[in-house]
Amino acid sequence: MPRRRTRHPDQFDLLGWEPSQPVVAFDPRTVRAASLAASISKAVSQSLKGRQREQIAERMSAYLDEQVSEHMLNAYASEARGEHIINVVRFIALVEATGDRRLLEFIAELFDWAVIERRYLPAIELAERLEKRAEMDRDIEAARRQLKRGGVL
């Protein structure tokens, strides 16, 4: 009977690797609404889902040094309470209290931007430089071909 090989616990599974997600966003179906205000309410609601709203309100209150109640959070998360749209200061406090980057991405997507961690910035800068180098290489090759056709080279 052939011996079955077992993998060492410190050995990585090559096929089990998944890349990180540099951009984290809400499922568009969960925040789609007839107006921007209603979409924001849905995003707030999605962010609060599965969390203790009382604790989030306490964290926001501590961050802002002003009272934010669970009732206010419920109003911000309700599409039916259109007059209670969250303001930007409380939105920032909500992001801080929940740590939910999807809220920032929701706003950034409106402008065709993305929210990423700072650690990815050097990779983006490198990619931009490589693109610029490739563009310069194409320009150099085009100039070289033109010089050859003209008999200079």
- Structural class based on helices, strands and sheet pairing: mainly alpha
**Which ranges are low-confidence, i.e. pLDDT below 50, for 5 or more consecutive residues?**
none
End-to-end distance, in Å? 71 Å
Report the sheet-strand fraction.
under 5%
Question: What oligomeric state do the depicted chains represent?
Answer: single chain
Q: Could you report the average pLDDT, rounded to the nearest whole number?
A: 92
Largest sheet: none
Helix content: 55-70%
The SSE string, one letter per element, is HHHHHHH
Number of domains: 2
Protein name: DNA transposition protein
Give descriptors for this structure.
153 residues, mainly alpha, 7 helices, flat, DNA transposition protein
Polypeptide structure, described:
The protein is built from seven helices and no strands. The chain has 153 residues and is mainly α. The protein is flat. The model has no long low-confidence stretch (mean pLDDT 92). The protein has two domains: 27-115, no CATH class; 117-153. Helix 3 (53-64) crosses helix 4 and helix 3 (53-64) crosses helix 5 (88-98).
